[in-house]
Amino acid sequence: MTRWMTLGCTAAVACGIAGISHAQAVATASSAPTPAAASQDNRMVLADNESFLMPLDDAKNAHPSYPQHLLGQNLPPRIVCLRVGIDEKGAVTVVARAPVSEMCPKGAEPEFLAASETAARTWKFDPALRCVFRNTKDKERAVASCDGGKSVPQAVTLVYRFRFEQTDGKPQVHVIGG
């Protein structure tokens, strides 16, 4: 079953988004399939005795800078979406433009994309974890952790949205979820 991966998800229930730092809630498995790992569309599927913990971003991860030469144009807000691949050690391995969608419109100036890519390539994370428990009761006791189970670092891809805007002539860049 294709599913969203957030804290406390089970294989039987598609989970919603709650409290995920900066990232849109789509995370896809990037490693080789394991008994619970990836389905045909490369999204992780968890067994009933497994849970997933999103990667934690480093507080020092810098936001992109608003391109200075575009400030005088007083452009309306622009959205740039990136797919960011994070490996089992928490390092960024891939940064690429995310597909166009309702939440990720087309048309931002290339300078905004370049600024977003430059910042994202410097980011660091504590890796995502697939938590494997002996049974579902152990999983339920863990409450958003791998306590009592085995922590398996997991490579993931996340979608980040960057909103570039000017407020009272001052540049602002917000990293927002989907």
Automatic annotation (TrEMBL):
Q: Does the keyword Signal apply?
A: yes
Q: Signal peptide: which range, if any?
A: 1-25
Q: Which UniProt keywords apply?
A: Signal
Q: Give the domain of life.
A: Bacteria
Protein's UniProt name = Energy transducer TonB
Q: Which organism is it from?
A: Lysobacter auxotrophicus
